[in-house]
Amino acid sequence: MPELPEMENYRQLLSGRIIGRTITGVEIGREKSINLTPEQFEREVVGQAVRFIERRAKHLLFHLSSTRVLVLHLMLGGMMFYGRKEEKPDRTVQVRLSFGDHHLFFIGLRLGYLHLHEADELPTVMAKLGPEPFDPQLNEDRFAELLRRKNSTLKNTLVDQSVLAGIGNCYSDEICFHASLRPVNRTTALSEQQLSQLYQSMRTVLNEATRFGGYMEMPLFVGDTLTGGFDSRCRVYDREGEPCERCGHPIVFQEVSSKKSYCCLHCQH
């Protein structure tokens, strides 16, 4: 599932391509991916320009000139592609937004969605989300308070969107590895020093992952060499059996709080 770095990468790359451009057409391949009838959706969206794109947690918010907002959540297996029809990957498209001869294809939205909301509905839509990892008000003390309040495993706490917004399976494991802590650790058992290290690791890992385009493999457009650049830099996620880059012991797969998790049992404590 795309997480904060993947969605931030999409936001940055798309902003230079569609901001200020007018949506000239819409095609709906899966009605369950939208929250209106296809006819209503087309009527409300076509003719509107994209004013700016915002990211909130794992969502992208496409602010339109009508003051309405398209809220995207890709969920598991979702991705996007921007380009001409002949450039599109051979994948099923659930929603297509056209910008003249270029199109934004929403692919793999089996569980994901692209919903249209009034701007003043956004606080309610996003009400259950916790603070962003880079929220200026999320200092080390506030971070420690949020984690201790959860009283669960690190894995379960880091992926809980009501605690911290934007972290999922991949980066929870990468953050724990960077902090030399196992995902199975209970948050209430961590020392002040460990919580401080975890806070710094969270910011370091997410910054690096965003800088290298996240781990999504499919390019956003033809010639995109950034998207997916972090995949080869993952230290533990999906690396079962490979040697740990710190100590050489094999990375192991475990289920933690009913979620898949990867770690090094030797150098993560």
UniProtKB/TrEMBL annotation:
<protein>
    <submittedName>
        <fullName>Fpg/Nei family DNA glycosylase</fullName>
    </submittedName>
</protein>
<feature type="domain" description="Formamidopyrimidine-DNA glycosylase catalytic">
    <location>
        <begin position="2"/>
        <end position="106"/>
    </location>
</feature>
<dbReference type="InterPro" id="IPR035937">
    <property type="entry name" value="FPG_N"/>
</dbReference>
<keyword id="KW-0511">Multifunctional enzyme</keyword>
<keyword id="KW-0862">Zinc</keyword>
<dbReference type="GO" id="GO:0006284">
    <property type="term" value="P:base-excision repair"/>
</dbReference>
<dbReference type="GO" id="GO:0034039">
    <property type="term" value="F:8-oxo-7,8-dihydroguanine DNA N-glycosylase activity"/>
</dbReference>
<dbReference type="Pfam" id="PF01149">
    <property type="entry name" value="Fapy_DNA_glyco"/>
</dbReference>
<dbReference type="GO" id="GO:0016829">
    <property type="term" value="F:lyase activity"/>
</dbReference>
<dbReference type="GO" id="GO:0003906">
    <property type="term" value="F:DNA-(apurinic or apyrimidinic site) endonuclease activity"/>
</dbReference>
<feature type="domain" description="FPG-type">
    <location>
        <begin position="235"/>
        <end position="269"/>
    </location>
</feature>
<keyword id="KW-0238">DNA-binding</keyword>
<comment type="similarity">
    <text>Belongs to the FPG family.</text>
</comment>
<keyword id="KW-0863">Zinc-finger</keyword>
<keyword id="KW-0479">Metal-binding</keyword>
<dbReference type="Pfam" id="PF06831">
    <property type="entry name" value="H2TH"/>
</dbReference>
<dbReference type="InterPro" id="IPR012319">
    <property type="entry name" value="FPG_cat"/>
</dbReference>
<dbReference type="InterPro" id="IPR010979">
    <property type="entry name" value="Ribosomal_uS13-like_H2TH"/>
</dbReference>
<keyword id="KW-0227">DNA damage</keyword>
<keyword id="KW-0378">Hydrolase</keyword>
<dbReference type="GO" id="GO:0008270">
    <property type="term" value="F:zinc ion binding"/>
</dbReference>
<dbReference type="InterPro" id="IPR015886">
    <property type="entry name" value="H2TH_FPG"/>
</dbReference>
<keyword id="KW-0234">DNA repair</keyword>
<keyword id="KW-0456">Lyase</keyword>
<dbReference type="InterPro" id="IPR000214">
    <property type="entry name" value="Znf_DNA_glyclase/AP_lyase"/>
</dbReference>
<dbReference type="GO" id="GO:0003684">
    <property type="term" value="F:damaged DNA binding"/>
</dbReference>
<keyword id="KW-0326">Glycosidase</keyword>
